[in-house]
Amino acid sequence: MEDHDNMEYFYQQVLQKDVTRRLQVGQDLIDYLNDPHRSPDVEQDKPRLDKTIDELTGWINSSNFKVALLGIDICGAFVDRIGERFKGYLGTVLPALVDRLGDGKDQVRENSQALILRLMEQTTSPMNVWERLTPGFKHKNFRSREGICLCLSATLSTYGAQPLSLSKLVPHLCSLTGDQNPQVREASMTTLVDVYRHVGEKVRADLGKRGLPAAR
């Protein structure tokens, strides 16, 4: 087994397109990352790491929900393993996670949100993550738009308002209160209420400026 334990082996496994094969190797890859003795070259072989994480987004985007969940878990294992060094991959991974916030399966949506929150904790500041999440407010999938609102509520309840530049995020929420989808309208209002709970009058003034009736 020893000769299997390197990033090249890992990369070859992640390249697998076959669902059955992916489901077989997925847990092994997580165990491999969780054991630094088995995977000493994770940190050393950066080009290989780059390629591996690129491929992993293909797992996260898989139409097979079990593969998608494994992809999210493996990504989480990478985050645990390399921490702040994962920051360079946010541009690759976050768009895939935003897509999955709109998944048809609850568990995929929940795990995506949980990983996004972990990225805020382990790789970079919550606002740096949000800078990259904002396109999600305009996502073509209504569930992803809804999911981004829910994710902002979750961010507030985990980190509070302090680390967030809410003035950059509130306008997006305001736009979504006029979304064509009722679930998105509902979620954006709920999140605005959460924002209000955290920052109070300051946000009421912002909303007034945007022509949103104060009573709402």
UniProtKB/TrEMBL annotation:
It comes from the Eukaryota. Residues 8-214 form the TOG domain. Its main location: cytoplasm. HEAT repeats lie at residues 169-207. It holds the Pfam family XMAP215_CLASP_TOG. SMART domains: TOG. Transmembrane segments: none annotated. SUPFAM superfamilies: ARM repeat. It is found in: Cytoplasm, Cytoskeleton. Keywords: Cytoplasm, Cytoskeleton, Repeat. This is CLIP-associating protein 1.
